[in-house]
Write a structure and sequence with these properties.
This protein is mostly helical and about 325 residues long. The protein contains 9 helices and 3 strands; from the N terminus they run H-H-H-H-H-H-E-E-E-H-H-H.
């Protein structure tokens, strides 16, 4: 009973910390202050530790790795999201990372702690199929990959917002740091002598509008960190899908059964594989690959939560209809 009360205290504490963190990041975006950025980073780190303590207490209470029901997986996802945030923020040194990730982390914890029915929050004995070491190996890797891909997608969305209404030309490697230039497609006449017809030909030359140094640095950082975080999450997603196929063969005698969860995991893999292929092989840069990465945010949520709640399948937590 003491552990249950501790869990309740910790999940509410994580919600309050993330709410304060959200305010720090958003106010800091409007009124830039160094101490607000530091407060936001401290809040994310504190929330990460509190959620880790919650999962640890749950593990002690239930006797198994706490990732078997929706309540546990939501908090594990929130822990992974805050971890990916700390990595991205350390790489970018930009407060805009927290502006993007804090609302999502807060929404996840609010949904888990305040919205889920009580009977979906309590721990229960594992069904026979889940009594396997693959529970930790498959599900934890998948959840961490979801968290990393979400952060990468959020940064791609932020990149699209920063460069809205402009054509962005990237000059440089997609792996390293490039430089950006905004091009405004307006034509200015320039008088250039023409040899033919013995007169003056009026040629058009597009005017180029350079990014301000601040937006240049911000766009460059967002694109670069988004690419790197997705590059971290994609191999984890691949490993998680392979581990799940092996576990499915052990539990159900088939590596792949086209369960809704399996189908959407494959769709998620294809979306981010297309993004990385476009960046690495095709040389897509700027807004086009960012649009593809941004669409991945919705795809990850459908894969993780949509099919679990709305669809009937081997991976469902329940459904509404």
């Amino acid at each position: 009973m003491d552990l249950i009360r501790l869990e309740s205290f910790l999940d509410n504490t994580s919600f309050l910390i993330l709410f304060a963190t959200l305010l720090a990041y958003w106010i800091g975006a409007v009124f830039p202050q160094a101490w607000l950025a530091q407060l936001g980073s401290l809040g994310m780190a504190s929330a990460n530790l509190v959620i880790a303590a919650l999962l640890g207490a749950r593990w002690l209470e239930a006797g198994y790795f706490p990732i078997s029901n929706l309540y546990e997986s939501l908090f594990f996802l929130a822990w992974g999201l805050t971890t990916a945030h700390l990595i991205a923020e350390a790489m970018s040194q930009s407060r805009l990372v927290g502006v993007c990730t804090a609302p999502v982390a807060l929404g996840i914890t609010a949904f888990a702690a305040l919205t889920l029915p009580v009977d979906m929050q309590v721990s229960a004995p594992l069904v026979p199929a889940l009594k396997s070491n693959w529970l930790m190996m498959h599900v934890s890797v998948m959840m961490i990959s979801y968290a990393a891909l979400m952060v990468g997608s959020l940064l791609a969305i932020a990149f699209l917002v920063v460069t809205k209404g402009q054509t962005v030309a990237l000059r440089g490697s997609s792996v390293g740091t490039g430089s950006y230039r905004l091009q405004r497609h307006e034509s200015l006449p320039s008088q250039i002598p023409a040899e033919s017809s013995g007169g003056v030909a009026v040629l058009t030359r597009p005017e180029t509008l350079a990014l301000s140094p601040e937006r240049l640095s911000l766009a460059d950082t967002l694109d670069n960190i988004s690419y790197r975080i997705i590059g971290l999450g994609f191999p984890l997603l691949t490993i998680g899908i392979i581990a799940g196929a092996v576990w499915a063969n052990e539990a159900w005698g088939s590596y792949w059964s086209w369960d809704p969860k399996e189908t959407w995991a494959l769709i998620t893999w294809l979306v981010f594989a297309a993004y990385l292929h476009a960046r690495i092989t095709k040389g897509w840069q700027g807004r086009r690959p960012a649009l593809l990465a941004a669409s991945g945010f919705l795809v990850v949520w459908v894969c993780y939560l949509g099919v679990n709640l709305l669809g009937k399948g081997l991976h469902s937590y329940g459904w509404f209809f």
